[in-house]
User: Which sequence fits this backbone?
């Protein structure tokens, strides 16, 4: 299939359309990014790379990082992880605290913020130097040693993160945070502040797109079955309250971040990363979702 | 792959285990079924059939019928359907009326009861003789002319269906039911009362498992893309509040019913039907879910 | 105190102001009433009557009737009543079904619709000819033999009462309705359709304003303590989600109806009835609430 | 009326009954108090004092302090206060964060924790040395200069107050906290840690029981109408999710605290304080509520 032509066509088509959506402003540092950035990168299982636009420019991966932290926690704890966090779609907006209280402190899944904070707490417990080891793992996944936290973004988020402070304290009140709340949030904000390019995300997620091999990087080991399950969680929960819509129209497991990035996977075929900072009303990249819909429609490939 | 051996093995293994779960008692007629029934049927894309146990015995398909009615509504209305019902997982128990009120009468998806009732309302509007045409469609899908409603089950459900009456009236109060509420419920209960075997369900769902051909039966036409989308909705919403768990552990689109049936699909590979009447605490067949977990684990095949 | 002058003054002041609020349109028959009607009637404990405007014109008392049915149920069942319905303010809009589901079919209090429907069910169980006996009781309370149901209003409400149908079916599904749902609703809609004047309501509620005597009318007996408790429920729950505001600004127990009527009580001092059909955004008479605020402020009398 | 005999009788009767309920353990420092403490103090409007048991022993007044802080905020801001906090009963348990999120950061009333925290934030904004001025006000109300914060209790609460931290951060995320969250909580925990006796509470609330005079203490001025409104809020919201029950069975405005104290008012007649540390399942003093029920029944006096 001529992926490059398809990517070029969709990119050009979308360029002529009005770009709707709004850049996230609740993290002041993110609001500085040019809203017109647009990059796409496709990395196939047989080793080919296709890209267009700002595919080699760094951006804040934000919630996409939750896939990385989940993979570490699953490797460290195995099934015991699911006593601390569920695997069901949340059915509500991504920052809702309601469900948390109703379900006595067990977040619905590891991709809503409270769930990701519980996973962060686990990493703080089990890794000696959490920030350092997390970074080494990402560098091992990508082979790119220059990937780093953006401390300005982390600080900016920390200063305005009252909702996350509410979540972590609520979780702590139910006994589902074991470490100091400030320490957990400090790691969580660093994790989210990772700066990566579409290309680098492609390399990293390529490891999760391969469900036929054992996964083993930097001491993190996952069975084939565990890699498949990470894909299942991405499909069910990767796009907040737009997960059903995304499965319905795109048909790929994936994960979005408020920095405007989306990574999606066709297992054992390819990994595709898109970046465009304007968000739709569900908090996912407006152009990113549209691009991927077009892509799976024109290639007629999806998991279904 | 030697499917028959794998099926036999899992069947035997499960037979030695204690059979947990409870038969649904809220529909008195269903409570009469022997709780020890257990049947499995696999129908591959290349035309082979494998079965064991009570695979040729009729049972009440209940909510599995929602896939059939959805396919008709999607054929008749196209994307306009999504103004009346959503495609997001519900995140709550299958009979919750809360979300309905909160979201002003638009059910989250077509597989929770309120969503299926809205779809039933659409069929009452668009089909001349709804019950007759629905039955003809099922017979066309399966090629089995003896498939019929079980009027005792339909009546039994109608007499005890206060929650569904609550739902349909709440929907009507928001203007999302166009016909008389009693007429809609009458069709809905008939649709759910269909008696079919695992084998017959396999034949019917085989049509939805084929995402490479156009779907056209008895005047109902679906594009490849529409068939894929029905699969996506099954994956996201097919198992009530256990959908995430099912995707996580089984990894196949599917649909369950309180009669104890489950049908699951590996697109373009096979359709598998399981029937065992005892239900787990999420309302899905206890043995059915366990069987399918074992099956996708041992065959190492899933959509991920 | 010169009540008549105070009433006249407030009436005149409000006349000069713009009349906000909207007449209830969900009961078509009620929408026919002139929105400019405005009547006030005060009946003191020592037997004096003061009135102005349309105080002798009949209107649909609607939810005000819930006080009458509650008094019968309390007389018949005593404390056993509180196993079927609570006494806590609802904290949500008056037609919310959420709380009902959350609290397993026990309505928060007898003045939200589901609670009043449970009370109606009790009257259907315990009174032989419910509609006839209920009417006789109202006639005994007022001494006015011409008070009657408005069958057009009852029918109109029945035809459009999908939300109440949802409630009664939800209650039935939890086992908190013992009779046929249609029979219960038929009585409930008749009860709400009662046509009375401000003056007649004053006479009826005068009996509940006397907390120093035993209450005994037409076979319905209440102890002093029970009469006080009806007043307590009126104060806590009489104005839907505006109950706190009403206690805060008016400071009297009372009950409103969507027909635009309000009756309020200063125990052992007076009963005051107001009627003005336009409703505020909480479903209570816009002018009625404003009049009563002025009245307790200028007289400097309230229960506090 | 022979109040002392009535108090003695009820006290003796309750002494013979089993003392149910449990002492609050979530504030470790409070768990040290002897659960068998039991004191009652009645202070009449004409200046008589009646007491029994541990009426002169200090205890942690906890949420009773919310009435004091509300009175300051109302004096300082007047009606502008109600833009920051409502006056409706909450209809849910006292630490629920759900409603807060649903209603965009405006707590339902000043007596649920989030509401009291908003009031605390206002005091931090408007008083120069908040802790000092608050204490001076309480000393002025009671005429007792030795009343003070219990710093051990304040610290104990701070260390375990994750739910309050969740609330204050959620409020801050909606912009309804203007000061630093830690500073607000520090004042809030001090306010709640006040140690007072039943007798001292009687003296302080005596000022709120007088609705016929202007209230003016230590620079805090309230009109008669404002004092009445504080009473209305106590009646509607003073006992968390048991407020309706308390109005129903006791019929007095009042406020409870998890230290086991309750103060109730019959306006212009008396103030009654009860202390018994074991709590019922709604978080109010088990014996305190029972005592007050008996008291208003036997005296046949209440606001209704």
Assistant:
């Amino acid at each position: 299939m001529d992926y490059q032509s398809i990517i070029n066509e969709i990119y050009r088509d979308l360029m002529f359309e009005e770009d709707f959506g709004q850049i996230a402003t609740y993290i002041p540092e993110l609001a500085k990014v040019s809203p017109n950035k647009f990059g796409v990168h496709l990395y196939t299982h047989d080793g080919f790379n296709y890209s267009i636009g700002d595919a080699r420019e760094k951006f804040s991966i934000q919630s996409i990082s939750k896939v990385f932290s989940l993979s570490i926690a699953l490797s460290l704890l195995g099934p015991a992880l699911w006593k601390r966090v569920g695997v069901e779609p949340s059915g509500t907006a991504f920052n809702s605290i309601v469900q948390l209280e109703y379900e006595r402190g067990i977040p619905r899944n590891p991709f809503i913020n409270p769930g990701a904070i519980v996973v962060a707490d686990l990493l703080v417990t089990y890794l000696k130097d959490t920030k350092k080891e997390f970074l080494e793992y990402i560098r091992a996944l990508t082979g790119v040693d220059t990937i780093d936290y953006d401390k300005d973004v982390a600080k900016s988020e920390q200063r305005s993160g009252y909702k996350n402070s509410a979540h972590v304290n609520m979780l702590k009140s139910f006994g589902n945070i074991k470490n100091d709340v400030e320490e957990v949030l400090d790691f969580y904000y660093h994790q989210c502040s990772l700066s990566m390019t579409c290309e680098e995300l492609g390399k990293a997620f390529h490891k999760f797109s391969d469900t036929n091999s054992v996964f083993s990087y930097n001491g993190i080991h996952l069975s084939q079955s565990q890699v498949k399950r990470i894909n299942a969680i991405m499909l069910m929960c990767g796009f907040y309250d737009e997960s059903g819509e995304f499965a319905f129209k795109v048909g790929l497991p994936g994960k979005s971040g408020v920095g405007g990035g989306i990574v999606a996977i066709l297992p054992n075929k390819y990994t595709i990363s898109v970046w465009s900072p304007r968000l739709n009303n569900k908090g996912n990249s407006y152009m990113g979702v549209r691009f991927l819909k077009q892509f799976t429609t024109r290639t007629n490939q999806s998991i279904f």
Q: What stands out?
A: Residues 108 and 115 of chain A are 7 Å apart (CA to CA). The interface with chain D takes residues 96-98, 101-102, 162-163, 165-167, 169-170, 172-173, 181 of chain A (CB under 8 Å). Residues 3-299 of chain A form a domain with the Beta-lactamase fold (CATH 3.40.710.10).
